[in-house]
Write a structure and sequence with these properties.
The protein contains 14 helices and 15 strands. The protein is an alpha+beta fold and 403 residues long. The chain has two domains: 218 residues, no CATH class; 118 residues, no CATH class. The chain has a four-stranded antiparallel sheet. A three-stranded mixed sheet has the order 1-10-11. A hairpin with a 7-residue loop joins strand 6 and strand 7.
Length: 403
């Protein structure tokens, strides 16, 4: 695939982002399902991210918690499950089979083999593969009887889940592990169990487990085509590098899927080649300037491997942790300009790090978004699981917001 004749510059990419990611004031969604469908996947490693990402994009943000809980736990139109790069996401339930077949099967096979090896070798042969299979069958039967259960509840039904083995024996990272923690994770990667309603509030990371709803088994190549097509519709244009990073696939799989869907090459600012879906070459009209406060691990901030078109490299040390996880970010008109945090009393505070071209209108719009976020949080304190330098500084620093 060579360079195409159509050029999509940075300004147009930012306009596409505003509309397709539901961030422009005129593009906001009515339901969490619309948000998830527009973004394909919401990062679910930090439970609060799901709610904050949805709330930033809802027309009526005050309904965020109730509506997300309805979608996840009552209507089951959204599902929290393992997906790309061994990471937990929230997907539209209709995509569960596509995600499982396109990315989960390979990950699951590796995770299963590692589990059996670690349990057997880490117990000195005391725990065998046959023993593990018996415990697994018993635990799944108990989960089916209960409907939903915590690991603690399951261990009361199947005490062998509490057995321990040594992970990485003789290595610097040697540590004891419990069969239950590893087994439930592998069952999640295999798509056999999903995370259910958490204990406590919506910010809690102590989830119950539930047996996964049945879904059809799809051919992996067809599922890869469908996932890539949906993601390009949401995030195109994107480069091969972006696609390989986001999916976690081999470059040969990315190229095969691009060819299969007839992806159209376009040139980007800087000379790189990006791809869009067929029929998506039409220019995106400019949109009104917009402001947003997006959470740590937001799918927009984490959507591309090459982020220079919306995030200046000099801002990264303040906004990312040491593992590459983005923290809470402040956006103006398609680019990251700073970060935000909550103080101990729940107040939302923010700081601009890149003020180029920001006038009074921008600062006032950001302040309105901060007030909007603070209103629906209603005093709930949210601390990101992966904390970044600016977030930690702002959360501990006294003084007026926006300084």
């Amino acid at each position: 695939m060579g360079d195409g004749g159509r050029h999509i510059g940075t300004a147009e990419r930012r306009a596409r982002l505003a509309v397709r990611h539901r961030l422009g004031a005129r593009s906001r969604a009515v339901t969490p399902e619309e948000v998830a469908g527009s973004l394909v996947a919401l990062h679910g490693t930090d439970p609060a991210t799901v709610y904050l990402a949805v709330g930033a994009r809802l027309a009526d943000a005050d309904k965020t918690v109730a509506e997300v809980e309805r979608a996840l736990y009552e209507d089951r139109t959204l599902v929290r499950m393992h997906g790309m790069r061994h990471t937990v996401f929230v997907f539209p339930t209709e995509l569960a089979a596509v995600v499982h077949a396109s990315t989960g099967l390979v990950n699951a096979a590796k995770a299963r083999a590692a589990l059996v090896k670690d349990v057997v070798s880490g117990s000195g042969g005391r725990l065998t593969a046959q023993w593990l299979a018996e415990v697994e069958a018993s635990a799944l039967a108990a989960l089916a009887r209960r409907g939903q259960a915590t690991v603690g509840e399951l261990t009361r039904d199947e005490p062998r889940l509490k057995e321990q083995f040594t992970y990485g024996a003789g290595r610097s990272y040697e540590a004891p592990q419990t069969v239950s923690s590893r087994l439930m994770r592998v069952l999640g990667v295999e798509g056999r169990v999903v995370r259910g309603r958490p204990l406590g509030a919506w910010t809690s990371s102590q989830f119950r487990w539930a047996v996964a709803p049945p879904h059809p088994e799809l051919p992996p190549e067809g599922a890869q085509r469908e996932l890539l097509r949906r993601w390009l519709e949401a995030c195109g244009p994107a480069t091969e590098g972006d696609l390989k990073w986001w999916t976690g696939w081999r470059v040969t799989e990315v190229r095969r899927s691009l060819t299969a869907i007839g992806a159209v090459p376009v040139t980007l600012d800087g000379g790189a080649t990006g791809y869009v879906t067929p029929g998506d070459e039409e220019p995106q009209p400019a949109v009104e300037p917009w402001a947003a406060l997006l959470p740590a691990l937001d799918p927009t901030a984490m959507g591309w491997q090459d982020r220079d078109w919306y995030l200046a490299p000099e801002l990264r040390p303040a906004l990312f942790d040491g593992s590459g996880n983005v923290g809470p970010s402040v956006w103006w008109d398609g680019r990251v300009v700073g970060g935000w945090a909550q103080r101990a009393d729940g107040e939302v505070v923010w700081r601009v790090l890149d003020g180029e071209g920001l006038g009074r209108d921008a600062h006032e719009a950001i302040e309105r978004e901060a007030a909007r976020l603070g209103s629906w949080l209603a005093g709930t304190r949210v601390t990101p699981r992966f904390r970044t330098p600016l977030e930690k500084e702002l959360s501990n620093r006294p003084g007026p917001s926006g300084n």
